[in-house]
Design goal:
By secondary structure, this protein is α/β, with parallel strands linked by helices. It is built from seven helices and nine strands. It is globular. The structure holds S-adenosyl-L-homocysteine.
Amino acid sequence: MRPVRHLAVFAALGLTLVAAPDAPDPWQARRILMVEKQLELREISHPATLAAMRQVPRHRFVPADLQPQAYDDHPLPIGHGQTISQPYIVACMTEQLAPTRTTRVLEIGTGSGYQAAVLAEICAEVYTIEIIPDLADQAATVLRSLGYKNIKARTGDGWKGWPEAAPFDAIIVTAAPDTIPPALLAQLKDGGRMIIPVGPKAGAQDLVLVTKRAGKITQRPVIPVRFVPFVRERE
Ligand code: SAH
C-alpha cells in the first residue's frame, strides 16, 4: 500500500519519478532466476553457495558479446579455447567443498575468475592459479574492479599447487587431468576436501570428491562431467 500512496503524493506534486542512483542492478533479476531454476530445482541447497551465486555478477566474467547469455544454463567460451563452466557445475563444485567463512581454498584454473569470485564471497582466502597469462591478467583486472581483497592470483602450472600457502582446507580444480596431481593431495589439510574432474581429454571424466582423514585419502565420484584438459607446462 505504501508505495502507491507515495506515488499519489508524487503525482499530486507534479513530480516525475526517475531511477534512483541506487536502483536495483538490472542483472540481479536474472541471477535470482538462475539460482531458482538451475540450482535450487536441481537440489543445490548449501545456503552460502546460493547466496554467493545470487551476488556475483557473472556477466562481468564473459566476453562483452556473450553477456546476454551470461546467466543461461550452459558453459560459454572465454577465449584461448577455454570456457567458463555452466552455473550448475560451479554451484555443485562449490557446495561439495562445504566452504565456510574460515576456509582457505586453492583453485587451479582461474579462467574467467568467476569461480574464484564465488568462493571469495564465502571463504576467508582464495588462492588461484592460471596457466594462460592473458586469461590470468583479464581475470585479475575484473576481480580487482569488483573489489575482491581476499583473492591471491598467480600465473603458472597448477600441477605443483601453491606450496608456500599450503595446507588448504579446500582445493578445487577446474581443468581435467588424467590423474590427481600428487602435490595437491599433499597440500590438502587433514579433514580437507578437494573437488576435481578426472579423466581422459575427450569424454568419460568424473567429478571426484577427495577427502583426507587421519592422512588417509578417500575418493568418491559425484557426477560425469566434461572439462577442458589440464595442461602441463612442458606440453
Ligand atoms: N574456473 C574457471 C574455469 C576455467 S576453464 C572459471 O570460473 O571461469 C579451466 C582453466 O584451467 C583454463 O583457463 C585453463 O587455461 C586452465 N588450466 C589448464 N591447465 C592448467 C594448469 N596446469 N595450471 C593452471 N591452470 C590450468
